[in-house]
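Input/output pair, single chain:
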Amino acid sequence: MVIKKKETKESTPRSTIDDIINKGGATTAEAQTKELESASEIRFTLRIPAKLIRKVDEARASRIGNVSRNQWILEAISKAIK
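Output:
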């Protein structure tokens, strides 16, 4: 029976591994800040009482054309800011 020497895999040089480790990166807070600055749109959840939503829907219905609730709220916020 012929016995072969076991093949060994070439390992990554230690300097390459150290370079990757020392490269570092941004902390979570830094990454979130950069994400917010680069985003042209921010999405979030807004809780609105049912009575207020009914009033918003009534105002939307009285307007000519079909306007989404989201668009109506954006327009109202824009008017309030000006």
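Residues 49-59+68-82 form one domain. The two ends are 90 Å apart (CA to CA).
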